[in-house]
């Protein structure tokens, strides 16, 4: 299986590569159109600030490519947020794959949310064999509100969408590569999805 | 619910884990990668690696160690010690660190916090603050607690939050190594003052100290070293005790 991690200069992608390796697969870091299009699985990571990351995507032309991909694509953390319509962070226009606008937690709670929180209402093959209310690792100040494309929910200030799916596009606000053995199982599920 | 976090801290010198009592008189407590794996398997929520010799000796943090840890464990970890530039941080993040912790360099060059938050996001910027009480005032100290500054703990905490820190790691030098409990009064004040997570550090000696720092100190996470390294407290036992005190934890 050919797995590509989109490398556009955003954050800690080495951890995802290591996690894939622990599952017994190899992943290639790439920003090359041909290589990304030919992959069986595409992982779209992202850590950092939304407008800055989006600018890097646009500079490499990947903003045009990603929405046209046909194989399973997994956006993680900021990657998931950039797949939404827009983000309040830096007033950023996203890729418009998920029909939801990303907004910020209010000061009623500590921001960023940092640590382990539960996911529930799991609704996708991505969560095959995963029990309700397992803990995932999250670090974020902005979130996708609950919406029809939510395939997992989490409570922090409000009930929000901690994972999204539309067709072949998947997104997780949590970091499966940093969420212990359960997180690794979710990554393994993503690799096992039927095309 | 978001859980409280238990964070073993691995102080690193020459590639080995060490823990000093009041930061002097170091003892060897094992291989960092092996320890990291054990803690991860036992249910630690995060790990912190502090290259404690780095600030004094101007050494850069051990990139090889970061890679080994990142390839071995599947929970987040923070790296600190001797980090003084955007470039330092870039190298560590590229090699698998999730967050970096800055201390002296932030005091000397506060703009570094802004630069790191802007380039990498607040979520990976932990500002570590060492402080002790002098004439009833909490004063920030540098170089492993040896050098006092002019800064007041609470003023500095507010400033680092405003500059974009994602988290504060507060070590009370008065409590560190004493095993008499965390500085809960100062911690609670910090937690109410700023709206970013606070990691309590310094003073862990028994399970009740952790209960107290979450309930009285309002800490979001608690960090300790020797009680874990020398197996005085098992993480699993600790978490069950916390849960029995109605403190949300990941078990």
From TrEMBL, chain A:
UniProt keyword list: Amino-acid biosynthesis, Cytoplasm, Glutamine amidotransferase, Histidine biosynthesis, Hydrolase, Lyase
Entry's localization field: Cytoplasm
One GO-annotated biological process of the protein: L-histidine biosynthetic process
UniProt EC number: 4.3.2.10, 3.5.1.2
Gene Ontology CC annotation, any one: cytoplasm
Key word Ribonucleoprotein present: no
Active site positions: 77 (nucleophile), 175, 177
GO molecular function list: glutaminase activity; imidazoleglycerol-phosphate synthase activity; lyase activity
PANTHER family per record: IMIDAZOLE GLYCEROL PHOSPHATE SYNTHASE SUBUNIT HISH (PTHR42701:SF1)
NCBIfam families for this protein: IMP_synth_hisH
Name of the featured protein: Imidazole glycerol phosphate synthase subunit HisH
Lineage, highest ranks first: Bacteria, Pseudomonadati, Bacteroidota, Flavobacteriia, Flavobacteriales
Automatic annotation (TrEMBL), chain B:
Active site per the UniProt annotation: 11, 130
Pfam family, one: His_biosynth
Record bears the keyword Calcium: no
Keyword Repressor: no
PANTHER family the UniProt entry points to: IMIDAZOLE GLYCEROL PHOSPHATE SYNTHASE HISHF (PTHR21235:SF2), IMIDAZOLE GLYCEROL PHOSPHATE SYNTHASE SUBUNIT HISF/H IGP SYNTHASE SUBUNIT HISF/H (PTHR21235)
Family: Belongs to the HisA/HisF family.
UniProt cross-references to NCBIfam families, sorted A to Z: hisF (TIGR00735)
HAMAP family recorded: HisF (MF_01013)
Name used for this protein in its record: Imidazole glycerol phosphate synthase subunit HisF
Annotated gene: hisF
